[in-house]
Amino acid sequence: MFGALLPGVDHLPHTHDLDHNAYSRGQPAWGAHLADELGNIVALHDPSTIAAVIVEPIAGSTGVLPPPVGYLDRLREICTRHGILLIFDEVITGFGRTGHPFGAQAFDVTPDLITLAKGLTSGVVPMGAVLAKGDIYDAFMTGPDEAIEFFHGYTYSGHPVAAAAGLAAQAVYREEGLFERAAALAPRLEDAVHALKGLPHVIDIRNYGLIGAVELEPVDGRPTLRAMEVFEACYEAGVLLRCTGDTMAIAPPLIIGQDELDQVVDTLATVLRTSNRECDNTPRDQSVGSGSLHRRASRVGHERAFRRRIRSRYRVGQPSRLSRRSRRYVGRHTCGARSFPRVGGHTGAVACTGNVPVQIAG
Ligand SMILES: Cc1ncc(COP(=O)(O)O)c(C=O)c1O
Are 206 and 78 part of one and the same domain? Predict the structure, then answer.
């Protein structure tokens, strides 16, 4: 029914397999052989027709999947053998999230290109970047004198505001030792999330660096509903997590304190304990009209109702309405955050998406 979103793209199998990988701490031991499917794809299409292989070192939106031990090495080896570029999408794993500057260093595999965003400016101003190996860089940057190098036409390329935010973020990372801080906090996050094993509906727990994930058993016929309910309950309790599929993802800012980290995981634990009930399985069309508005919202349009509420609370361009506690927290780390326009979310989202709120200087 659905074709590939990009034409001419093949997908490798993912590495998520609860029978073999459930409750792995860090990299799963099982799954490196799944990279060999790339060899089959190469044989099918002929390597000369394949420009590149792109992976996230730790798959994020698909539910936080640390790479099995040896998996990325095998991809690298196959790409090198066939002259195919290996690209790491490090939009999530870049800038300290793994306890190393980049996932490439965490897993000791060097790609040909790295794509970056989020942590580049700590998410406070939009900016993306591509890192390239020397020979690729040279191919673009050497040519006739009169030719423009890497000719392309993005309106906002190298925007000074984004560049200033990027420089400021890099300075904060360095001065506050935030990558090291992530590495130091990682074992605490690992222990805290794995302590949730056995709570209602928990079917897997995964972690790497300052990322944790708790996968929940989906409600029969209603994938994503359980995670959305847990997400909302955590939010109401003052903790903004992310849910993707039926997985709760924890990726706190690198400046998070140990107590705050405990608070995040404790809140999730409390919500999971108290949500020990079967989610309502009533099909949407049958449940309309039953019960109070609130019950209907949670049964019928739970997600939609929640998103509506978030949208009305946090409108783009509106001055922020942060709690006093959030204001104090943000005020310590930013300049003028209170008058920040809301850009696609609120300060919690900034903290979630970026690593540290930064002051834009210069
Ligand atoms: C791994 C990954 N790659 C790419 C993107 C897209 O990045 P951007 O929105 O900066 O284009 C995202 C966004 O969440 C992401 O998580």
Answer: no
